[in-house]
Design a protein that fits this description.
The complex is a heterodimer of chains A (41) and B (579).
Chain A: H1 15-40
Chain B: H1 3-22, H2 30-35, H3 42-53, H4 56-69, H5 79-97, H6 105-110, H7 113-146, H8 150-159, H9 161-197, H10 205-214, E1 225-226, E2 229-230, H11 238-255, H12 257-263, H13 269-303, H14 312-319, H15 324-351, H16 357-386, H17 397-408, H18 413-448, H19 455-483, H20 485-511, H21 518-540, H22 551-578
Helix pairs in contact in B: 1-9, 1-18, 3-9, 3-12, 3-13, 3-18, 4-13, 4-17, 4-18, 5-11, 5-13, 7-8, 7-18, 7-19, 7-20, 7-21, 8-19, 9-13, 9-18, 9-19, 10-13, 11-12, 11-20, 11-22, 12-18, 15-16, 18-19, 20-21, 20-22, 21-22
Classes of the chains: A mainly alpha (41), B mainly alpha (579).
Amino acid sequence: MLRNENEKPPLFKSWTAWYVLLVIFLMLLMVLFYLFTKKFS
Amino acid sequence: MSILDWLVLAVILTLVIAYGVYKSRITHNLEGFFLSNRSMPWGLVLLSIMGTQASAITFLSAPGQAYTDGMRFVQYYFGLPLAMIVICIFFVPVFRKLKVYTAYEFLEVRFDNKTRALTSFLFLLQRGLSTGVSIFAPSIILSSLLGWNIYYTNLFMGGLLIIYTLSGGAKAVAYTQQLQLFIILSAMFVAAVIVVQKLPGRVSFTDALYISGKLGKLNVITTGFENGKFIWKDQYNLISGLIGGFFLALSYFGTDQSQVGRYLTARSLTQSRMGLLMNGFVKVPMQFGILLIGALLFTFYIFYDAPIFFNQVQLKKLQQSSYRDSLQIARQHYQAIQNEKKAVAAGISALLHTKADAKKNEAIDKLKYLQLQSDSLRKKVKDWIRSSEIRGDDNDTNYIFLRFVLDHLPEGLVGLLIAVIFLASWGSIAAAINSLASSSVVDFHKRYASQKKSDEKEFRLSRLYTLGWGVFCIIVAMFAYNAGNSLIEAVNVLGSLFYGVILGVFVVALFFRRIQNGHAVFWGALVAELLVLVIFFLSRQEKIQLGFLWLNPIGVAGVILFSSLFQAAFKKTNRQYVA
């Protein structure tokens, strides 16, 4: 069942792009959570 | 529970078991049973990873945690997305290249058999006991709230899932987790909507957030610094969440077979990686959503009468003790404060959309003061429950959400939410039992067997181990009831004690190429474990102030340091011997 293990990731050209996107997403979440905390505290 | 609730509960549980059995067509060999022939798409891998991590306690405890301590618990998951990236880059390609069944097989290829056996044994010990407690923890809550017999509840909680886990192995586990998560998340969403709907007419969703926030429950981001000093004992803050949470997630997803076994079922390296990365995207927002229910519940219980303590069994014990009269007085006082809080909060919501800032601030200060008084009465009750006369469980966090479900949800939905508890348990327990069986068969039975068995025989053996571990975990759950809180606490900390060291062995294997000596790593791991235990006991005795999340990076650093030292020492000894 094992396919070619070097196939490319979906949507982006490299896995690095996925990793960067996830880090940016996490940072964005933290900023949003910070603003949420500030607004309601 | 009404007849309708029982009916909903029975239909959902039967549906899930039937679906699991229906999806049980697999090839009769180890790869079919434990890895679903490595055929799963990333969507199923993602849901399986999420279903394995989220136990019943996740859905019971998180709202209660936000109710008592605020939403800062979400920071515990901040390290998880970063860990997913590291696992995708370094761990998954190695596991897939070697076509391993368990993560620990890699350690034999890299070092030696005893290092593999040690880490696999630590996994079996920790996961076997903690799965037993995973059965017991939701069972005791349901048993306390609904008056069910604890032994039968344990049996249903841990026994029924064995039907589909035995017949379909990892494939049935993954497919049922998909259905379970869909039902769980839908039911939690409905519960959240009802919390908001049941608020008094004038109080909107944002008003509820405003009140909850002013009383410190929307503290999503906290730095962990107090007067310019970092509080090492503080469990949930930005720094401990990012660093400690990263190491915890790295050990759990990278080296715990219950998770490794999920993404090894993927049909390719890409599908494994996508499943893990998507988990990094959805986990933090999902936890935020669950915690938000707890923060909203906090405002809800300002307008509706909150019990002074949410675990009624412990309250009954107090009523039958010498604290009876004190409890009566405390309850009356609590109720009076509750009435005052209700009036002040209603005033705040009326003032919210006006420009009367001074009045609004005055009312908020009053509400804060009243909340402090309520908290102090709750603390008093907890002290009595913990006292030598009662020796009860003074933590009612896990009971808060279910108390709301039983008291305020309509018929039918109560059954649905009780089903959620079972399904969340089944998802994580089924994956755990499947992984316990795979490690036992692959790392020990097959590894040390003198004769090679046929595929069919290995398949039957795997089912036998699955059944055996299922029975073992139920026995642990039954024993937990008699042993009381001490065992549960012990098992809960067990993960933190071992995870760092297990991860340390993998970190050395993957990143420290110059460390080749299996003896060095084996002894390095043992000494590092000893160091973790010493630090843990020192912190328990309050000789040092340290949150448990920090034990993970300490374990990792310990293995790297001691393995390097032993490697150098062994090299020196060998050189002397040769000379």
